[in-house]
Structures are given as C-alpha cells and as structure tokens.
C-alpha cells in the first residue's frame, strides 16, 4: 500500500522545538519533490515547506515559518523531516506530508503550542 505517515507531534511550550518525521511506504520517495503542509481547526490547508528531489535538494519555506523551520529528507531511509524551532501558538495545527506530483497526502500529526 502506498502511503505517507507523519509522526513526532505533541504539546510544546512557546519557544520550544519539535522534529516531525514522515515515513513513506509502498514506494520510494527519491524522485519526488515533497511538501509539508498544515491545517488548523476551521482553517484552510497551508503550505509550509518544500524540498526538491534533485541532488541540490532545494528548499523553500512559507514566510510564516522561514528562519524557524528546516525541511530535510533521507532518501535512503525513505523519510522526510521537519525541524521546528521557536514554535509559536499560531503554529498549532495538524501537520502532514505530501507528494503533489502523485496527489498523495499522508496522515497528519498534531502539534500544539501552549504554555
């Protein structure tokens, strides 16, 4: 079965950090650009970050997370990551990974930022 599964979410205080992981199964991610997205309750989905499939693994970020989040990938492990630092209450959302080229969006993981 082709799927993506995010993990690593949880409750963290403002200013804290979390590292999200996304595990792919049923296929290899090496040839695909991959995204992280998030969706807060009652809100539309928001694109967070992208990493290209090429050797340069070019990364881009939404302005709201630039300088605080870092996307990375390990093709050998079939994994995608999102290091989130300096978390803010407005980062609270369900975070998910996706591969737009094949219309695949994985199950998300909940991040809550609260004191």
Question: SSE layout and pairings?
Answer:
Blueprint: E1 3-7, E2 10-12, E3 18-25, E4 34-39, E5 46-51, E6 59-61, E7 69-74, E8 79-84, E9 93-99, E10 104-105, E11 109-113
Order of helical and strand elements: EEEEEEEEEEE
Helix content: under 10%
Can you count the beta strands? 11
Using the CA coordinates, give the radius of gyration: 13 Å
Strand content range:
over 45%
Q: Major sheet, described briefly? A: 7 strands, mixed
General shape: globular
Number of helices: 0
Distance between the termini: 39 Å
The low-confidence runs, each spanning 5 or more residues with pLDDT under 50, are none
Secondary structural class: mainly beta
- Provide mean pLDDT, rounded: 95
Describe the protein's architecture and organization.
- The chain is mainly beta and 115 residues long.
- Helix content is 0%, strand content 50%.
- The chain has strands spanning 3-7, 10-12, 18-25, 34-39, 46-51, 59-61, 69-74, 79-84, 93-99, 104-105, 109-113.
- The strands form two sheets. Strands 2, 4, 5, 6, 9, 10 and 11 form a seven-stranded mixed sheet that branches. It has a four-stranded antiparallel sheet with strand order 1-3-8-7, with no helix packed on it.
- A hairpin with a 7-residue loop joins strand 5 (46-51) and strand 6 (59-61).
- It is globular and about 40 Å long.
